[in-house]
Amino acid sequence: MTEPGADPHTRELLTFAERLADEARKLLTAAADVGADAVRPDIKADNSYVTATDRAIEYRLRELVADAYPGHGVLGEEFGAHGLDADHVWVLDPLDGTAAFVAGVPVYGTLIGLARHGSPWLGVMDYPATAERWTGVHGAFARRNGAPVRTRPSTDLGSALATCSNPDFFAASDADRLARVRERVQYTLYGASSYAFGLLAAGRTDLAVDCGLKPYDVFAPAAVISGAGGHVSDWAGAPPSLTPTSTTYLSTSTPALHREVLPLLR
Questions:
Q1: Is 217 annotated among the ligand-binding residues?
Q2: 96 annotated among ligand-binding-site residues
Q3: Backbone phi, then psi, for 263, in 5-degree steps?
Q4: How far is the C-alpha of 83 from the C-alpha of 105, rounded, in Å?
Q5: 63 among the known binding-site residues?
Q6: In 10 A of CB 79, how many CB atoms?
Q7: Which residues bind Mg(2+) 1 (predicted)?
Q8: DSSP character at residue 100
Q9: What angle do CA 162, 219, 80 make, to 5 degrees?
Q10: Type and span of the H or E element at 8
């Protein structure tokens, strides 16, 4: 469901992004139902998991984008990038949380972002196992299953609930920085993959500290979180980029909380 107040161009592209999410959900649900063969992973060069399902979903989404918007660029996890200098670039993670998918933990899904002039603009985060979908437009609005969501107005770091997708992705120096945040917050939850970003947008958590993320991990969540009132940057405070120099990211429910946490990560 798109936002009635959005301009026609935004509505058109968000509707198309949800069409991509529908297609991805269909393929991902079918693969999960098949069983062991569909979820058997290969190991990529960076030691992460990939399955035939990751590749099949991204291939299909790229087909749909090429048919509908041949002038748009695409950056995907499995098949690389083209047209990064285009005004609009689709940023695709066909199966975020592949390890969770392999293990049957229901926090895996598909991330569909659309960059405009190189910055996060539209985002769709779809999770078939829990029948949840977040949609958002940067700085404008965010929804969960069609209902508006807002980040909570967090100002007290000492009572904050933080998330971290996987501390194993952190280098030693980065882990020290994570420890600074962990010592200041009330509690830190691990292992929710990108689903944690939806929880942040929906007002269930206060901040997320992550390392090892690529643009396809970040662009859709950044649009949704911003649309819900939150803020996303790398640990130096720079906004997400299609050609980043960092893989470390901080997402917070409010700009004020962001300003408080950033010095702990620098």
A1: yes
A2: yes
A3: -60, -25
A4: 35
A5: no
A6: 15
A7: 77, 95-96, 217
A8: H
A9: 125
A10: helix 8-34
- Residue 222: Cβ within 10 Å count: 29
Tokens representing 56? 């099949």
Where would I find the beta strands (DSSP E) of the chain?
A: 42-43, 49-50, 73-76, 80-82, 88-96, 109-116, 119-127, 132-137, 141-144, 147-148, 161-164, 187-190, 207-210, 231-234, 249-252
Tokens linked to 258: 């962001």
Specify which residues 209 forms β-bridges with. 250
pLDDT tens-digit profile of 198-219? 999 999 999 999 999 999 999 9
Token pair recorded at residue 91: 């940023």
Read off the pLDDT of residues 11-29 as tens digits, 9 standing for 90 and up. 999 999 999 999 999 999 9
Tokens encoding 79: 């098949």
Q: Please say whether the beta carbons of 264 and 161 come within 8 A.
A: no
Question: 95 labelled as ligand-binding?
Answer: yes
All structural domains of the chain: 8-148 (3.30.540.10), 157-265 (3.40.190.80)
Give the pair of three-digit tokens for residue 161: 């609930």
